[in-house]
Amino acid sequence: MTDLWSERAEAYRYAPEQREGADLDLIVRWAEGSKTALDVATGGGHVTRRLREAGLEVVSSDPAPGMRPDVICRAEDLPFAADSFDLVVTRIAPHHFDDVPAAIAEMARISRNLVVVEDTLYVSAAVEEAEILRDPTHVRSYTEAEWRTFLEEAGLVVEEVESFEKRHPLEDWLARTDTAEDDAVRVRELLAGQIEDGEFVDTKLVIRARKAA
Asked: Which range (21-25, 78-82, 146-150) has the least confidence?
């Protein structure tokens, strides 16, 4: 799948809803006080870019070489020593992870202070079916309760949770993953309740957690 994501790199690097948003602004605010950060599954590199602009020393990681990360690795196998970074963050990526609890455990191990996770909130089985049809690398989205469990089992204390509506121009969103037209028809049917004025509307959950003392 890494070759597939390398092929998609430019589309994700320049997609407006990936490059900007109140969710990204919140991550930058929550990073205040941190000096070093690891951006896990950096994708288009937007978290890395914004945190560097805020003055942090940031290392980016991603399994896809085409995303141009500093370090090529899976979220479940982060090649860093314990307590290497003040902040470890991942944005809109965990629904692609093979093993979310393992990835969160790695993020908790490497952080000396904060872990910030953002991902798409689980809505329904129909939305999950649509997500997989549109992008076979989608594994699963999770509820807030599931996210709290992942973080707490990794030894983290959840401090704050925010949610944000994210609007995706539907046809651009489908084109970004080169969705076959037959599949696109079914995706539109499954997402009928989530489409407004030609945009697919979903919710991103952003969670700040701290390592337990």
From this structure: 21-25
Q: How much is the pTM?
A: 0.93
The residues facing 88 across adjacent strands are 38, 115
pLDDT, residue 77, reads 97
Q: List for the chain the helix, strand, coil content (%; round to 5).
A: 45, 30, 30
Asked if 203 contacts 166 with a C-beta cutoff of 8 angstroms, the reply is: yes
Q: What's the CA gap between 170 and 168, in Å, rounded?
A: 6
Residue type, 129: E
What letter would DSSP give residue 142? B
| Domains of the chain, first to last | 2-122+138-166+202-211 (3.40.50.150)
Q: How confident is the model over 14-62, as pLDDT tens digits?
A: 666 776 889 999 999 999 999 999 999 999 899 999 999 999 999 999 9
> Exposed, middle or buried, 181 (CB in 10 Å: 0-12/13-18/19+)?
exposed
